[in-house]
Specification:
The protein is α/β, with parallel strands linked by helices. Helix content is 48%, strand content 18%.
Length: 841
């Protein structure tokens, strides 16, 4: 090639920054519209908002440049607000949720016809150590696209998607099967506990209409759907099932950590074995490895294109082949949002490469991000979406030669001795690889903290160690999955080394897991932290100024420290708070005073309460660390979630009544033996208490009233050995008392009444979940509480036998029930008032 004549003018290099700024401005305006519509839900109709956007566009046409930009930006904001409103708050007239009158308290009996779009799966709740002892039936569920609703006037068209839950499903039910289902319909529920995410907007945008609980005999198979898209989905599911049979050919292999993890990595399959590993991956900061994402598809593209390059370097043909392979792979996978998002990003980038033109990849990524936000608006505020776009943008910048931790250093500067060029190159590659891992963690940390309040401190180390191993596992696993479609037995043999590498990935995550949990940071602090991280990674000190970078970082750190301090104590003016969480049939109360907290029982007949409900609620209520817990008595609905909660909250002491502890150690049941083993294995100290003792955890001080030291362990039922304690709180209006009663029944109530009657309680935990009898009526009436907290499932909701006592209390106070109100709380204020709060209403 002839050299260019120096006298000729140089070809100007295209500056991509204006295009990047335009895309960023468009995405920001769209986000502003979504936020405004979410904050003003139901205030404006979508037609009015779209009309406002059209009017702004008309006003922008004759305006000067500056005003035109402002008007067009406002038009995008208005259009975004209209789109959010249309997709979220204005369902179609034939949507199942609009056709059926039902609420959280009164399910409606319905009969619908629809097509299966997702196969039956077991519940994905992470199992706790004691969940195997629960009596609750673990139902499977599938997704159904609704076609019609049967009424007294006959079948009428209906739309929406419902989750059908049943103890078991007929083996003949496949994706694409048409079913007629009769069952109890419940609409989409809002959050019922502190810290629980509100997923109603996201589910509305997906067309979700709620849940139908049914029995196998109430499901009628009508045949297979004739629609082409349903037939295609059925074929893809059949091929996927053959691949899964190659990876986990039997129940034994499905429970193997390596095989289960490989199934999750390749096919997005979740089994009980992988559920047990999810916590370790999250704590290590590499949870993205478990959810099929751009990383998995990038490895597939790299393997495909790498193999094609062996036959010659044909960039355009290689890109087209990569598109075909990834498109086929995405078709075989469940149509989950992360998979669709990752597939769209990678396919668009490969398509741009296939054209042979030099498109700016960051601009392409920006348009992909906008397209995904239009496809499903709630994705814009999802953790996965934000991390995918942010980290992908960072990696593209690095790939384009942008500054990263000073990579422009002369490679020779790394050489401290006589090393070969290969050794110097490897040293530089290792430095850059480590820098990329650190960069991804540094950029993602503020976003993760804003969403979850949890951060894997060992993230850079875990990513650096686990990513190559996981990549190798995927590279070996993809051929096994493909061969398994044709010959599952041969595919299973090929998958053996990939499964071993997958198990090694799990061991790396478990060994590096160092979790840190706080309350989720406010968005403004996360934005400051992200800006500081971007400045440190990408911007030269001469471009931004070291003082500005340090200022952003200082503001983020100082604001985070101030928020951490404020979020770890009760709000100003609140002396104490008792919160009963909604755990269904069970009990879990959080007693707080100042910056300290005690967990009063932690059980339910539902699985997963100790893993999700209690820790999230505690962090949200300002109790990220709970030092002590109380087990009132030895019924599993009061302690099933405690071992898992002890891990999450750092509980180091558990209090039990002395008679109960003696009885449990003398002849424990299997669940009680497992409880003691789990707690002792975690280094939790067991302390016994009796009447007259005091339970102290910082500012929280509980005076034990029952049982006495000489309480007969055989003469009393388990419930009557429940711990009863009171907390006295000094206020400007005098001493206010909270009385916690566990599951005491007639004998314990009578004994407490014989001592002069129960203490007057301004806040009362209703004994035994609200079980009614004459002694309970007398006991509650004598306590004369201003607020009653009743933790119960639906079986004891609004028991009419309590109507007289409940009416007397509600005339001047409140009777709150978790089955109706969600989590409920009573706050004792500094002025002596008692204020209530309910999360569901």
């Amino acid at each position: 090639m002839a050299a260019r004549d120096p006298s000729e003018p140089a070809i100007p290099r295209h500056d991509p920054r204006p295009a990047r700024l335009r895309v960023l401005a468009l995405l920001s305006a769209l986000a502003a519209g979504y936020l405004a519509a979410s904050a003003l839900a139901g205030t404006f109709h979508s037609i009015a908002l779209f009309a406002a956007a059209a009017l702004l566009i008309l006003l922008a046409l004759p305006a000067i440049v500056t005003l035109r930009r402002v008007a067009l930006t406002l038009a995008v904001v208005a259009a975004g607000a209209g789109w959010w409103t249309l997709r979220t708050h204005e369902p179609r007239a034939d949507h199942l949720g609009r056709l059926v009158s039902a609420d959280d308290d009164v399910p409606a009996l319905v009969r619908i016809t629809g097509v299966v779009v997702e196969p039956a799966r077991p519940p994905s709740t992470t199992p706790g150590p004691l969940d195997r002892f629960l009596f609750a039936e673990r139902h499977e569920s599938l997704r159904l696209r609704v076609e019609s609703l049967e009424t007294n006037d006959g079948a009428q068209p209906a739309t929406g998607r419902v989750r059908v839950s049943a103890p078991d499903f007929d083996d003949r039910i496949r994706v694409g099967s048409r079913l007629r289902v009769t069952g109890r319909y419940l609409p989409v529920r809002g959050p019922r506990n502190p810290g629980e995410p509100d997923r109603r907007d996201a589910l509305a945008q997906r067309g979700s209409a709620g849940t139908i609980a049914t029995e196998p005999e109430l499901i009628e198979i009508l045949g297979a759907s004739a629609a082409w898209q349903d037939r295609l989905a059925a074929s893809a599911q059949a091929l996927r099932a053959r691949s899964l049979a190659a990876i986990t050919p039997d129940d034994r292999s499905a429970s193997s950590p390596g095989r289960a993890l490989l199934a999750a990595l390749l096919l997005g399959e979740r089994t009980g074995a992988i559920d047990e590993q999810r916590a370790a991956f999250a704590e290590a900061g590499v949870a993205h490895l478990l959810a099929i994402s751009g990383f998995h598809l990038a490895v597939l593209a790299w393997v495909t294109i790498g193999l094609l390059r062996l036959a010659g370097d044909r960039p355009r043909l290689n890109a087209i082949a990569g598109i075909a392979v990834i498109g086929a792979y995405v078709t075989l996978l469940p149509a989950n949002t992360p998979i669709v998002r990752a597939g769209a990003m990678l396919l668009a980038l490969l398509a741009a490469d296939a054209t042979g033109r030099r498109y700016d990849r960051l601009v392409i990524l920006g348009w992909i991000a906008i397209a995904i936000a239009l496809w499903r608006p709630s994705e814009l505020f999802a953790l996965g979406y934000q991390l995918s776009v942010l980290i992908t943008a960072a990696l593209l910048l690095v790939a384009d030669g942008h500054r990263l931790l000073n990579p422009r250093r002369d490679p020779a500067a790394l050489d401290r001795g006589e090393r070969t060029p290969l050794a110097r190159a490897l040293s530089l590659s290792a430095l850059r690889y480590t820098g990329v891992c650190a960069m991804c963690w540094l950029l993602g940390a503020p976003v993760v903290l804003a969403h979850s309040g949890q951060l894997g401190i060992g993230g850079p180390v875990a990513a650096a160690l686990a990513t190559p191993v996981a990549s190798a596992s995927l590279a070996l696993g993809f051929p096994a999955a493909i061969v398994g479609m044709l010959d599952p037995e041969l595919g299973s043999r090929i998958a053996e080394p990939a499964a071993w590498l997958a198990s090694l990935t799990a061991r790396i995550a478990e060994s590096v897991a160092v979790p840190a949990s706080i309350a989720p940071l406010p968005s403004v602090l996360a934005a400051l932290g992200l800006a500081a991280a971007c400045s440190l990674v990408f911007v030269r000190p001469t471009e931004l100024g070291r003082s500005v970078t340090l200022g952003l970082l200082g503001l983020a750190v100082a604001g985070g420290a101030a928020f951490w301090s404020a979020s770890h104590r009760l709000p100003d003016g609140v002396e104490a708070r008792v919160t009963a969480l909604d755990v269904g049939d069970g009990s879990a109360l959080l007693v707080q005073r100042g910056g300290d907290a005690v967990l009063w029982d932690c059980g339910s007949l539902r699985p997963g309460v100790g893993r999700w409900v209690v820790p999230r609620a505690a962090r949200s209520l300002g109790a990220a660390r709970v030092r002590a817990a109380v087990i009132t008595h030895s019924n599993i609905d009061h302690y099933a979630g405690l071992p898992r909660a002890a891990d999450e909250l750092g509980i180091d002491t558990v209090y039990l009544s002395r008679p109960m502890l003696d009885a449990v150690r003398a002849g424990p049941s299997a669940s009680e033996r497992a409880l003691l083993s789990e707690l002792e294995g975690r280094g939790v100290r067991l302390e016994s208490v009796v009447a007259g003792d005091t339970i102290e955890a910082g500012a929280v001080r509980l005076e034990v009233l029952w049982p006495p030291a000489d309480a007969p362990t055989r003469g009393l039922a388990k419930n009557d050995l429940s711990i009863v304690a009171r907390m006295d709180v000094g206020t400007a209006g005098g001493v206010r008392t909270a009385l916690l009663t566990g599951d005491i029944q007639r004998a314990a109530m009578a004994a407490l009444m014989d001592g002069g009657g129960p203490p007057v309680a301004h806040v009362l935990e209703l004994p035994h979940h609200g079980s009614h009898h004459a002694a309970a009526e007398v006991f509650v009436g004598a306590a004369d509480p201003a607020v009653v907290l009743q933790s119960t499932g639906r079986s004891r909701l609004d028991d009419p036998r309590w109507s007289r006592v409940r009416g007397a209390i509600e005339s001047g106070g409140a009777w709150l029930v978790t089955a109706r109100d969600g989590a409920v709380a009573a706050e004792i204020r500094a002025d002596g008032s008692v204020v209530t709060r309910r999360w569901a209403r």
